[in-house]
Amino acid sequence: MQELHDASLAPLTTFRLGGPVTRLVTATTDAEVIAAVRDADTAGTPLLIIGGGSNLVIGDKGFEGTALVIATKGFALDGTSLELAAGEVWTDAVARTVEAGLAGVECLSGIPGSAGATPIQNVGAYGQEVSSTITEVIAYDRRTGETVTLGNEECDFSYRHSRFKADPERYVVLRVRFALEDADGLSGPIRYAETARALGVEPGGRVPLAAARETVLKLRAGKGMVLDPEDHDTWSAGSFFTNPILTAEQFAAFHARVKERLGADAEPPAYPAGEGRTKTSAAWLIDKAGFTKGYGSGPARISTKHTLALTNRGGATTEDLLALARDVVAGVREAFGITLVNEPVMVGVSL
Q1: CA 164 to mean position of chain CA atoms
Q2: 182-238, pLDDT tens digit by residue?
Q3: Nearest to 48 by CA among 35, 61, 62
Q4: Residues involved in catalysis
Q5: Per-residue pLDDT, 314
Q6: How far apart are CA 292 and CA 308, in angstroms?
Q7: Residue 334 φ/ψ, nearest 5 degrees
Q8: 346: closest CA among 18, 72, 79, 40?
Q9: Which residues of 133-172 are buried (b: 16+ CB within 10 A; e: fewer)?
Q10: Closest C-alpha to 180, from 225, 134, 214, 235
């Protein structure tokens, strides 16, 4: 187990932002992860868990406590059952499932971060979510001091949310188990309209797994959503805001604001979200509120490829990023009466 002191956290995040941490520990086995967590909890030391760093906004003052980097490895495939160690690079693991001819996560190709983070955020994109394939999550329960196995239903998955996100101080994910599908080399049903168009199939159709993965990677790269050290549009956390889910009353008020602002023929994106709720597009809201691609004049700006990504153009501080985010939130609220919610986890800062 490697240990450093007063180490910068910026290199451990995809934003490349964040100040120093008092103590930085890198664990390469589950036992080391548990030992580091227990040590911090016993001493009453604040603990920050870091996987791939793709969903963190860390303050410029850094973190006073212990930061634990989970760097465990493990890819175990048994038929259509897959177990991943929390530290596995997610997009590499997805590539291996495609090579094995198994469907279920191929449309989640190119998403940065670690396997252990996927159930926390219920990671999803292009018509797939990990909640549809996760069978169990093995985690260390900091409250009881035991390793527990939680079934899919116990994880309380919902849109970009889970039991782990709801109670972030309790569980440390160690391993994730998935049930994939052997569809004779074909993908799962293509549910996302943009992906279906790019693949030339009707929604619900299937395509060769490799074609699905390559198409998703191409779509993501076109939006600056595939990590590239030379491309500052990828110095981000991907989607910075979640898509708002509105009650019927909230959507009616929003719809009226859209007509008032954009004209009688304007129609906002609207997708059923269950129980009389409607999901709309955060990217659409940002754009229509006047925050177009490339917006900003400082070192933190909206991506030139996608309005939903806030980026570090090089030399930015976390405060630069937060100033931009607050500007966007205030503008969308003023234009449409909707308050956007950040998707990345804030460490020592807030909007």
Answers
A1: 14
A2: 999 999 999 999 999 999 999 999 999 999 999 999 999 999 999 999 999 999 999
A3: 62
A4: 160, 239, 343
A5: 96
A6: 10
A7: -65, -40
A8: 18
A9: bbebbbbbebeeeeeeebebeebbbbebebbbbeeeeebb
A10: 134
Long-range contacts of 182-190 (CB under 8 A, 24+ apart): 182/79, 182/80, 182/101, 182/102, 182/103, 183/103, 184/101, 185/101, 185/209, 186/103, 187/103, 187/106, 187/107, 187/211, 187/212, 188/103, 188/104, 188/106, 188/107, 188/128, 190/107, 190/127
User: In this predicted model, what pLDDT tens digit does every residue of 33-50 receive, in sequence order?
Assistant: 999 999 999 999 999 999
For 336, the enclosing helix (H) or strand (E) is helix 318-336
Q: Which of 76, 81, 87 is nearest to 27 (CA)?
A: 87
End-to-end CA distance of the chain: 35
What token pair was written down for 153? Answer: 């239903």
Coil, helix or strand for 112? coil
**Residue type present at position 108:** L
Number of H helices, E strands in the chain: 9, 18
Query: Length of the chain, please?
Result: 351
**DSSP designation for 173:** E
pLDDT at residue 1, as a whole number: 87
Residue 293 CB coordination number (10 Å) = 17
**Residue 267, C-beta contacts closer than 8 angstroms, at least 6 positions apart:** 258
Nearest in space to 323 (alpha carbons), one of 351, 289, 304: 351
What pLDDT, on the 0 to 100 scale, is given for residue 193? Answer: 93
Q: Which residues, listed in sequence order, are joined to residue 8 by a DSSP beta bridge?
A: 20
Strand order in the sheet with 2-8: 2-8, 20-27, 63-70, 47-50
pLDDT(168) > 90? yes
Q: What distance lies between CA 115 and its chain's CA centroid?
A: 11
